[in-house]
Amino acid sequence: FSICTSRTPRVKEANGQWSNRIAAYWKDADGLAAALGHRMAAEKGRPVGIIFLKAKKDIPIKNWIAPEFLKDTPSLMEDYKTVGSQYPDNPYYLANMRRYIAEWKAFWNEYVPAMMETKAVPDGSSWGQFPSPKPNVGDSTATFEYNVYVYCFTPVALRGIMFITGKSMAADDQCANFGSELSVLANCLKAKFDSGDVPFIYTIPGKELAPKITQPNAITGKSTPVLISDWMDVGGIINAARE
Question: Could you tell me which of 8, 35, 88, 192 has the fewest CB atoms within 10 Å of its CB?
């Protein structure tokens, strides 16, 4: 799914709560977006637009990757099977749909007759349950932030892409796959935004933060790594974006 917006104004109610949570509205930039935009605008002498996308919590890299790109690294193949099997261009889609149809056949041929005969739901639940198109190969958070934050901006003309690595992305259990997954993410965003070979500027934690970190050596086209020794350090990536 993608983000939708409403034309109905966003109004603060008498109880202090904002109405219409999907209303489109503008507010002044703050934080990193404001710092980068104002500095670049002052240097260039013209307005600078920043699309600032931030998840509500620290999440893995795979959450920012589009479904069809998950297959490009072995560590995300299970996510590709799970998420991608709901898309017709995915090779696992057909198998999932066959399973789904078979479950509906069993529902009408076995489940419903058993319910009629026993006057009770066979599985013991109050309302019974229906077959689901959700694949049986597991669950995954992959592509979630891509669907919510990124997809609605594609394609768009950009001058560059900045990515700030979160702490959980370089945790001990993620370090081995960091390089390959960040490479997939970079190539995904470049392809989806369709702005040509724009620079992909990203922070990468130093050994003091992530001793086992691997390098993203498969990024296509222009890319600039910014080494950080503090998770809150954004000065380096701002300077890299100005160059």
Answer: 88
In angstroms, the Cα distances linking 114 to 25, 100, 131, 194, 241 are 54, 20, 16, 54, 65
pTM here is 0.79
* Amino acid at position 4, single letter: C
Classify each residue of 102-112 as buried b or exposed e, where b means 16 or more C-beta atoms within 10 Å of its C-beta: eeeeeeeeebe
74 CB burial (10 A radius; 0-12, 13-18, 19+): exposed
Task: Return the SS3 of 203.
Answer: strand
**Structure token digits, residue 224:** 């600039």
Mean per-residue pLDDT of the chain: 87
Amino acid at 124: G
Whole-angstrom distance, CA of residue 174 vs CA of residue 92: 26
* CA dihedral sign of residues 225, 227, 233, 236: negative
**What pairing do the DSSP bridges indicate for beta strands 200-205 and 223-228?**
parallel
Distance, in Å, from the CA atom of 201 to the CA atom of 223, rounded to the nearest integer, reads 6
Q: How far apart are CA 243 and CA 241, in angstroms?
A: 6
The pLDDT tens digits of the residues spanning 33-61 come to 888 888 888 988 888 888 889 888 889 99
DSSP-derived 3-state class of residue 214: coil
Structure confidence at residue 1 as a pLDDT band (50, 70, 90) = very low
> If you average pLDDT over each of 111-115, 127-131, 160-164, 174-178, which comes out highest?
160-164
**DSSP bridge pairs for 223:** 200
Q: What is the DSSP string of 210-227?
A: -TT----TT--S-EEEEE
